[in-house]
Design goal:
Helices cover 33% and strands 10% of the residues. The chain is built from 11 helices and 5 strands. Strand 3 and strand 4 form a beta hairpin. Helix 5 runs antiparallel to helix 6, helix 5 packs across helix 8 and helix 6 packs across helix 8. It is flat. The N and C termini lie far apart (59 Å). Bound molecules: iron/sulfur cluster (SF4) (2 copies) and FE2/S2 (inorganic) cluster. The site of one iron/sulfur cluster has 16 residues, from helix 4 and helix 5. One iron/sulfur cluster binds next to helix 7 and helix 8.
Length: 267
């Protein structure tokens, strides 16, 4: 029987848009040339590098994780035709440009020292002993220029040299451990591992304790949630889905600290 408008599903009637490896190009959609590891592909101009590569037939087994600019799995290096500069970005966030020459660097080896955070002190000496290569930094600033998160990498390295753990933790807060800074470092530093050590030391020993978190841990340890957790574990999947769908959610734009749920017995 021929398909009519009445028998078409909503999905079939929906406008076709380019979405990664399942892309069906709308009529007249513009494609642009990009070069992946030297080979030319024509891809829809609206896609991110990751979706464009999938459109071109690549399948991501490594080098993709969150697809939301958070996990650091998809660092990408590219040049543009006629531009001497190297550019850096995340494949899941950066939109393709005509005549972009790119490759992905899903992993870049960098020295990571082992330590037991319970055993070390939050001092400059601890950091310098674990990562003496800090002092190989020549302040070239290549790391900062390579960072897709606009982290001031050289500044946090300088803070670490001076032993300022709080400043290094603050400056490196947006680091997603992509490794691009290490790939460009003349001193062969593992910047992001050293910054992670600083944030761990800061979180464990320096930052003020959160009162509400201390209280919540006490509540958990006192057994306040044991019953409800037991009930949840015994529910079937359909009931769990129903409860999840009906849960109270804080509105996205609620002013901080003002929203309260109607159900307060577990607060
Ligand atoms: S600081 Fe280094 S590892 Fe962290 S996001 Fe920037 S380039 Fe990536
Ligand atoms: S790339 Fe390396 S040597 Fe250059 S400023 Fe950054 S940490 Fe220092
Ligand atoms: S896939 Fe996680 S940052 Fe790109």
């Amino acid at each position: 029987m021929p398909e009519t408008a009445a028998t078409e599903s909503a999905e079939q009637r929906a406008p076709k848009i380019a979405t990664g490896d399942r892309a069906i190009l709308p009529e007249g959609a513009r494609t642009i040339p990009i070069y992946v590891m030297g080979k030319k592909y024509d891809v829809p101009e609206t896609l991110t590098i990751m979706k464009a590569m999938e459109f071109a037939g690549f399948k991501f087994i490594r080098g993709a994780g969150c697809r939301g600019g958070i996990c650091g799995a998809c660092p990408t290096v590219y040049r543009k035709a006629g531009d001497y500069k190297l550019h850096f970005g995340l494949a899941c966030q950066t939109v393709v440009e005509p005549n972009m020459y790119l490759t992905q660097i899903p992993f870049y080896p960098a020295n990571r020292t082992s330590y037991d955070i319970e055993e070390i002190e939050p001092t400059a000496e601890s950091i310098h002993a674990l990562y003496p290569e800090l002092f190989r930094c020549v302040a070239c600033n290549n790391c900062t220029k390579a960072c897709p998160m606009d982290v001031e990498v050289l500044d946090y390295i300088s803070a670490l040299k001076q032993g300022d753990i709080e400043e290094a933790a603050r400056l490196s807060f947006d680091c997603i451990q992509c490794g691009l800074c290490a790939s460009r470092c003349m001193g062969e530093l593992p910047q992001y591992h050293i910054a992670q050590l600083a944030r761990r030391l800061y979180g464990k020993y320096v930052a003020p304790r959160a009162e509400h978190l201390r209280k919540r841990v006490e509540d958990i340890e006192s057994g306040k949630y044991d019953n409800i957790l037991k009930q949840l574990l015994e529910m079937d999947k359909a009931e769990l889905e129903r409860r999840y769908g009906e849960r109270e959610r804080e509105p996205d734009l609620a002013p901080p600290g003002e929203w309260k749920p109607k159900e307060i017995q577990y607060l």
